[in-house]
Design brief:
Oligomer: single chain
Structural class: alpha/beta
Number of helices: 11
Strand content: 15-25%
Strand order of the largest sheet: 2-3-1-4-5-6-7-8
Radius of gyration: 22 Å
Largest sheet: 8 strands, mixed
Shape: globular
Order of helices and strands: EEHHEHEHEHHEHHEEHHEEEHE
Helix content: 25-40%
Length: 371
């Protein structure tokens, strides 16, 4: 599969305040195998827990293996995801090589769970994922005591130090519980085709909440980790739904989705337009109108919203300007295009500024009483 980047490329620049075709509601379990791995075992597709367990056991895994337990947890999510990709790779390969073998076959997944062991191996996989053209997020189980998972040099601290948007670490009692969070994220995306969701404060079916003290939970969250805990007596909640960079998972997800849609739209316009597209400002208007039509749908879903631009001066925007509907798009005129770019048949560079709507995660009510 050849990349479409040479024809139509979307790059994302995040201002402080924050591919290839993808399926954003499907997870992948990547599992090392102690036996031989056939070509068919490189990519299995399952639509339910019973089918997954039957297939995974037939491929030589045990019911007690992390790969099998993770698949059960994945499908226990509510709302449930529709499908799971499962890939085996031989012990002679690294997890990164196993992932590459999947990508040779499909890009139709978003969340990844690694059913292997070893912190260094996991960190190597995260680094590999971070370098991929295709966007994805690695759901990382973090196990151990509160002091262990928040110590200097811990997995949480290393991932935070990497400032990565491609890892979502969860403090759990057992590694397979992170697959339940993956299943929840995929199921929520499946059920929010015309709206938006946040992972923060979601109930994770199939796993038991931890019982940390407030200071311990805060220490995990300070390292951009997530913890599943009980508030009050009956509210089991995942907090705060963030990736290791501190961005919320839904922000990363929807930015990835926007980038994918915009890139596909640019390619479709270039390849599907019946007439020649001249190097004129009228052609630029075609692109910008197409992009605006995509972005306004994200405004309708409450992902983008009218707000103040908090980034640096860029294009027509200065810090503090109001961005209507949460986005603006622009491009220079072809009058200023260089001779080299014109000779290379390039469009003028086009840009968009996005203002995310944010998400409310706390509220304060003051009671004023007169006696």
């Amino acid at each position: 599969m050849l990349s479409i980047d040479p024809i139509a490329r979307v790059t994302l620049n995040l201002n402080q305040a924050s591919a290839s075709p993808a399926s954003f509601d499907t997870g992948l379990i990547l599992a090392p195998s102690s036996g031989s791995v056939t070509d068919e075992m490189r990519l299995r597709i399952y639509s339910g827990a019973a089918q997954a367990v039957e297939g995974i056991l037939a491929d030589g895994y045990q019911a007690s293996d992390l790969a099998c337990r993770a698949a059960v947890k994945y499908f226990a999510a509510q709302p449930a995801p529709a499908r799971l990709l499962f890939s085996s790779y031989p012990a002679s390969e690294t997890a990164a090589q196993g992932l590459d073998a999947v990508l040779e076959r499909t890009a139709s997944f978003y969340g990844v769970f690694w059913a292997g062991s070893g912190t260094e191996n996991l960190l190597a996989l995260e680094e590999h994922i971070r370098g991929q053209e295709k966007p994805m997020v690695l759901f990382v189980p973090v196990t151990g005591s509160a002091s262990e998972v928040t110590s200097d040099g811990s997995l949480l601290s290393v991932l935070k130090g990497r400032n990565t948007r491609r890892a979502l670490p969860v403090w759990v009692s057992a590694p397979q519980d992170a697959a339940a969070v993956l299943g929840t994220a995929m199921g929520l995306q499946l059920n929010h085709g015309a709206s938006a969701f946040s992972l923060c404060y979601k109930t994770i079916a199939g796993i038991e909440p931890l019982s940390p003290r407030e200071a311990q939970a805060n220490a995990v969250k300070a390292l951009n980790g997530n913890v599943y805990l009980t508030r009050g007596y009956s509210h089991d909640l995942l907090e705060p739904g963030s990736v290791s960079s501190g961005m919320r998972y839904h922000e990363v997800l929807y930015l990835d989705m926007m980038g994918d849609e915009l890139q596909q739209a640019a390619l479709n316009l270039l390849a599907g337009h019946a007439d020649l597209l001249p190097q004129t400002d009228e052609t630029t208007a075609l692109f910008l109108n197409e992009f605006s039509g995509i972005l306004i749908r994200y405004t309708d879903r409450k992902i983008l919203a009218t707000g103040r631009w908090r980034g640096g001066n860029v294009g027509p925007l200065a810090n503090g300007d109001i961005v209507e509907d949460g986005f603006t798009v622009w491009a220079d005129s072809y009058d200023s295009q260089s001779e080299a770019d014109r000779a290379a048949h390039k469009a003028v560079p086009m840009q968009a500024a996005l203002v995310l709507s944010g998400s409310v995660e706390s509220a304060v009510l003051t009671l004023n009483v007169t006696l």
